Amino acid sequence: MNLLRTLLLFLGMIAGIVQASELKVAIGVQDPAQLAMSGNAIPPNMPGTELIALNDDMAREICRRVHARCTLSYVPFSEVLPGVESGRFDLGFGNILRTPEREKRVAFSAPIWFSSSRLVGTPSKAAAFAGKLGQPVSLDNLRDARVASLEGSLQLTFLNAVASQNNLTVLSRKTASEVIDTLRDDTADFGLLAMLSAYALLNRDTTRQIEFVGTAVADRGLGGSVHIALPRQNEALRQSVNQAIAAIRADGSFQRIARRHFALGLD
Predict the structure, then answer these.
(1) First-to-last C-alpha distance (Å) of the chain
(2) Distances, alpha carbon 170 to alpha carbons 12, 28, 154, 164, 257, in Å
(3) Any bridge partners for residue 108, and if so which?
(4) What number of helices (H) and strands (E) belong to the chain?
(5) 246-261: pLDDT as tens digits
(6) What does the pLDDT look like over 54-89, one tens digit per residue?
(7) Residue 257 Cα to chain centre, angstroms
(8) 119, 190 in Cβ contact below 8 A?
């Protein structure tokens, strides 16, 4: 009997080691075309690739430091948290803010960078609304407008909460690129996105048809620290990932990765 228990314990340890060395990683994408990307080929000219590449590099560096072989999958942002919650993924990357509601579903790593939100729109639409308002457009004074945001995002949650009192028509889209498309085809007047997501898309928009509107907002749940999502039941993995994040920041690797893809600071 003791021999059997010892054998079962040994097999359990081996299974744990195998499980820890193989991780499934979800990376939320900006554009529908990015869903078809392979893990080793991010097209350099595709809109929004800076943010995808940043998350890709961070995921690979963390996997290396926790000594895990990772399989990366590119999915719509709205699928990242449900995927981690259901056990489909072990790590979820995106512009993911930590909230009490989300903590009931998944665990969160230590912060990896900080985020805010911002309106985007065409110059002509911003000027037209400013004329009606008698002042520049901001998230605080926006009324009687159609506003698009990302499915599953805190920006969409915020818009839905104030839609009635501000007479807003709120539209939901699966990717940030589709939010931008609503502005181009005049389906929406403005979009509300995480600033880094919007920057990644607008930075490659040579037409300059879309621009930031108003100032960045970080209160009311629209900004804060960005985290990696993990399964709630795997505390050992969360601790290992947090140790990797601390090491990446301590030795300057995070700054090097961030500067590789963005000119603006992420802290």
Answers:
(1) 56
(2) 50, 22, 13, 10, 35
(3) 229
(4) 10, 12
(5) 999 999 999 999 988 8
(6) 999 999 999 999 999 999 999 988 899 999 999 999
(7) 17
(8) yes
